[in-house]
Write a structure and sequence with these properties.
Length: 434
């Protein structure tokens, strides 16, 4: 196979066969397809699209690049959750242990930050000692003991996605429905889960900027997952403003811990409960979403979700004391306020802009080889819809150096809008039945 021909075929709107896609993926992993050739092919795929059969074939090729786990020794039902990516979305960190505390296991393969969005792995690594790379046997052991384990891809699990994900992150090739579908499902199918709950984000801070595009992605994900034999429910949720009050790795981890303590911002807690209820129903724990929610609320109130979090962190080699003492998480040396330009109602906090501000502060990457600063990010002082007074802080920018803050201050200030009345916000926009 000549990779140039595959690039040209896609560039000109052609359809690649299953064998060609498999060879492309295999060739890339084996070094026969260069990084620049894969980048060019990804851009052609983004611009020209992939049809349903190409999407399925790409998903299969990426899945086949690694192992498919069975996790047979985990006797309870296993349900995974995945978000298509957002700003301030720390839900996996509190959701996985909370669902585990209610009797459904959560084997989760998560990703790193992508473009302007944050990644669960980067957030977990803000916990001193937490290891995201476990082999299959250790993953199964943690799942058995803690009920939840969140790991990254390794050479064992969908290694093709790990490589492609990092490449897409830095080549402007993230926002493609078939590439997102293949990326998410290749790793989700690898864990041998009994079901999957998808949080498909819509809005400025999402890869899908509006409801119509998010619906297209949600439908493609549910259809492809179902064809692969994975029971799936998708919720489309709002991502016009960051979720919760923090953006950035340690800051978000702290907020997820607050949720497990029974506090935390209302939207983060609500999304955790809504997604968790879907997971418990899909996991056969109960048939009713309302009962499922009550179980989750009880696990928040009695501390069993928090206890599972500590167990999971300990089993991953992390400092479990952060569960009761989040002050142990890294803190930024520089913390600078973003003042409100006038008095009024906060009508928008642009998640796209704030996502890039957070990357600029050091919380994300602009090149695949960049390290992230766990302490960097943004603390938001107000939710959209709240009243603000001129001069008071709308947010604090956190970084290791003042120069990073100075470079991002104007962009952060412009991300906020203050007006008379905020639009009515809904968190869950739509639900797609499995
Ligand atoms: N999440 C993923 O795992 N992959 C994508 O491509 C986008 C979001």
């Amino acid at each position: 196979m000549n990779p140039v021909e595959l690039i040209i075929k896609k560039r000109d709107g052609g359809r690649l066969s299953g064998a060609e896609l498999e060879e492309l993926v295999q060739g890339y992993l084996a070094g026969r397809v260069a990084e620049y050739q894969m980048s060019a092919w990804l851009m052609a795929a983004l611009l020209r699209g992939l049809d349903e059969s190409e999407t399925v074939a790409l998903t299969r090729a990426m899945l086949a690049s690694g192992r498919q786990l069975k996790l047979e020794r985990v006797r309870v039902r296993k349900i995974d959750k995945h978000s298509t990516g957002g700003v301030g979305d720390k839900v996996s960190l509190c959701l996985a242990p909370l669902v585990a505390a209610c009797g459904v296991a959560v084997p989760m393969i998560a990703g790193r930050g992508l473009g302007h969005t944050g990644g669960t792995l980067d957030k977990l690594e803000a916990i001193p000692g937490y290891r995201v790379r476990l082999d299959a046997a250790a993953f199964e052991r943690v799942l058995k003991s803690a009920g939840a384990s969140i790991i990254g891809q390794s050479n064992a699990i969908a290694p093709a996605d790990r490589r492609l994900y990092a490449l897409r992150d830095v080549t402007g090739t993230v926002e493609s429905v078939p590439l997102i579908v293949a990326s998410i499902l290749s790793k989700k199918l690898a864990t041998g889960s009994d079901g999957l709950v998808l949080d498909v984000k819509a809005g400025r801070g999402a890869f899908m900027p509006n409801l119509a595009r998010a619906r297209e992605l949600a439908r493609a994900l549910v259809r492809t997952a179902r064809n692969a034999g994975l029971r799936t429910t998708a919720l489309i949720t709002d991502m016009s403003a960051p979720l919760g009050r923090t953006v950035g790795n340690a800051l978000e981890t702290r907020e997820a811990i607050e949720v497990l303590h029974g506090s935390g911002p209302a939207d983060t807690r609500e999304l955790t409960l809504v997604l968790g209820a879907e997971m418990l129903v899909l996991g056969g724990r109960t048939r009713s979403l309302r009962t499922a929610r009550a179980l989750l609320e009880r696990a928040l109130a009695d501390g069993s979700g928090l206890e599972r979090f500590a167990r999971m962190v300990r089993a991953h080699g992390g400092d479990a004391r952060v569960a009761d003492d989040p002050a142990r998480l890294p803190r930024a040396r520089v913390r600078v306020p973003v003042p409100a330009a006038r008095t009024g109602t906060l009508t928008a906090a642009d998640a796209w802009e704030l996502g890039w501000v957070s990357v600029g502060l050091g919380a994300g990457r602009t090149r695949a080889e960049d390290a992230v600063d766990p302490a960097a990010g943004i603390e938001l002082c107000h939710a959209v819809g709240e009243r603000v007074e001129r001069g008071e802080p709308l947010a604090f920018l956190c970084a290791s150096k003042r120069s990073l803050v100075e470079r991002n201050l104007a962009r952060a200030t412009a991300a906020f809008r203050i007006g008379a009345r905020a639009p009515r916000a809904r968190l869950v926009l739509e639900r797609l039945e499995r």
